[in-house]
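REVIEWER CHECKLIST
Item 1: Sequence provided? yes
Item 2: Single chain? yes
Item 3: Sequence as submitted:
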Amino acid sequence: MGCKQAKIHAVTSRDVRQSNEVEFPVPKSIITTADASQAIKTEDDIIEKFVSKHSNRAIEECTPLDESGSERSHIVDEERFPLDDIRRDRSVDVTKEHTIFNEARSEQSDELGDLQSDRSNKVDEELFPLDDIRPDQSAELTKGHMIRDESESKCSDKVDEEYMQLKVAPPDIDLTPVDKEAFTPTICQQRQTAISKMSYRQAIDQWQPESFEQLIDFIKSLSVNKNEIDKAWIIFYWISQNIRYDTKAYFDNNIGSQASTNVFLSRKAVCEGYSTLYADLCTRTGLQCRKVSGYAKGYSFNPHKPSFEETNHAWNILSLSNGHSYFIESTWGSGYLDASTKQYRAKLVPHYFFCRPEHMIYGHFPVDSQWQLLEHPLTMKQYLMLPRTHEEFFELNLNIVSPVYTHNIALETGQSYGEVLIATPINDVELSGSLRDKSNTKIEGGDFVYFDRDQNLWRCRFAPQKAGNHTILIFGRKKNDANKSTLSCTVEFTFDIDHFSATPISYPITWSHFFDYHLDIVKPVNTRYLDWPSDKNFPYCEILVRSPDDVHLSATMADSITGKKIENGTLVNFNSQESLWQCLFAPSASSASYKLTLFAQHVNEKQSHCVAQFHLQQVHKSMLQNYSRFPSTYGSFHEAKCHLFDPLDGILKQGSKIRFHCRIPGAHEVNITVDGQWLKGDSASYMNENHIFQREIQVGQKEVAVWVKFDKQKSSYTGLLKYSVK
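Item 4: Structure as written out by the authors:
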């Protein structure tokens, strides 16, 4: 089914896409060895290998994610995934076909409503398309969309139906395309083949046309005996590599002629020039192409005040000889505006070559509703309600379960957080999130994103600290995308709160392994911040975690500013009665604030992984008089899931008498050395049937160590604990 002639408007469109390239760097993997100089860094997740020096004590480090700058103006500073979760480079340029998600119906309306443009919506360090320029959400590696098959759709169908009926109201929007036969397997394959064909790129990169006519000759020569899709891609690729967005003209509001010859000579344009040039090159080389004017959610769009004063963008519709029509968005497909510098960044984004109507409508609303290419065109009001999406949202085949067809998020009833539910076709996607306040400052501890295995979907929770306007950003990437070091922004929501009467909560930083190991934080609840206890008899900070029987925990404590690890600042006990890991932390001699990082590993694993991180508030000077440190623990202490009751202070007083009280599961013999000398006596007499070892000793001059033998067939002991003497 062909497309009718588009209306051409005299108003010069100039909206640049805003980059969705808000990048969440994937933290480096750190394998700790006995020699720090041997550390091997990769770009997976943080992993720790237990390798002891003379002692068996594990040395662990964790580098939580720093937000890296994204090339688009959306560089979100984030301390998440080690990955901590968040975005990688998807600019691979190869985009596979997208899927059709939505099938609900709405009545057609031609109302446009009040229009008002607002350029103030610069999401800090996010890269957004100038209105002309698309908001770049692309990660530097663009993997394309796959046509969803039945096996992929089953995943999202597993979401509990009763829960979904309560959570999701039937939407009054239908994004079914008017032409259901446009994206056949043959068309999709031809499109992908053209995009992936490196010989085209290599040939085009060598072109140096001296005139507009010579450029047309080059295109005709390269596309001889080629299909229409190849020819359309050749034009798209040349524009992406040779035309730059005219940011000066855009910001100065002084836009010159956008005629094709002028654009060719200056190599600069706004969207009017991009779309005009694409249409003219198509016409001159035998393709049928028209320009479409409308309203885009680009750089100047403010989702908190969604409206337009006038049309602000232009794009194209290409009609093939087979009667089918396709969207071409060469402006947003060529690059984005870096809002932090107001500089244009060139970047090929094939998503906007033959973009599907049900995807295009999220960011483009034509003046003439027929050019939505939808069976039931949206009204302006409906268009403005849709969340702001980025190309990677579709490339990852994400499906918003709740809220449906709206960018507005509200607090959950009786809760201090709002929630977004997202389903993925297959479990090869990982997501992360960020909550921003009105000034675009990231709210630390404001996001908690995890995969709900019971409902088979992602729960993205966001907890504001007070009333006001907030922006929610959700990032994603494919798990097996080893070339991607950060997650790309996929979709944005508004989270505006007029009144906030509930008690604010915050979330600890969690890594994907936290959920892989099925961990549960028992204490603290609903906060990532810990305070030192006021009890002088127990001057330790405590985190309690429940885990499966085959998962072991360990922990580190480091200065929040310098990152320096506090030696003997942690002790991890296993409370067998409560089946809980007790992670204790002791302050150092300074009043700094600290990062408390938890690690976990299966009993058969040689490496442990970062799972969670808390923030310990600055220690008051009055607490420093109770400064203490824990004894050194060897690997066997964690492996046997021991519990040290007393003494917890790792520094013993010279000549004093102390009683050891420790649970050591599986121990056959336990003995103690004082200044290197073994104590005499039958060790079995100090151990009861519950594996509780208790023995009183007199402290010597140098050190005290506890040794254990788990195998009665062996003659040697394994180190368990070591104390220093003062």
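Item 5: Key structural point noted by reviewer: Residues 1-12, 21-129, 135-170 have pLDDT under 50 and may be disordered.
Item 6: Recommendation: ____
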